[in-house]
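Forum > Structural Biology > Help requests

Title: Can anyone predict the 3D structure of ISXO2-like transposase domain-containing protein?

Hi all, first post here. I have the sequence for ISXO2-like transposase domain-containing protein but no way to get a structure on my laptop. I'd be grateful if someone could post the structure tokens.
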Amino acid sequence: MVKYVKETAHLYTDEWLGYNKVVKMYQRDFVNHSSREYVQGDVYTNMIEGFGAGLKREVLGVYHSWSKKYLQDYVDEYVFRYKTRDYSDSQCFNLLISNACVRTKYRELIDGY
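Reply #1:
Sure, ran it for you. Structure tokens for ISXO2-like transposase domain-containing protein below:
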């Protein structure tokens, strides 16, 4: 976590004990789901939990499994789908085409297999 989260970050978490290790490194507020507390002022984890659940469904429903090599690509695709979930088909297509400026060669796809 330290590798990816800036030291100035303010964490909003649930009560999972694993987060206790980061208390000394980050400012942290949490909600206690076991006490049926889901929101405390601006602190809640519902959005990230919903996002994570959707990502898991994507693995099971679309790809069935992921390889480590392409993990970031799978996550990037899901993020794109999530952020454009309210777009029309034509809006998604136009956005995809306008950002499709990288050509991937077959050799790059199979490299390492």
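The chain has four helices and four strands. The chain has a mean pLDDT of 87.
Shout if anything looks off.
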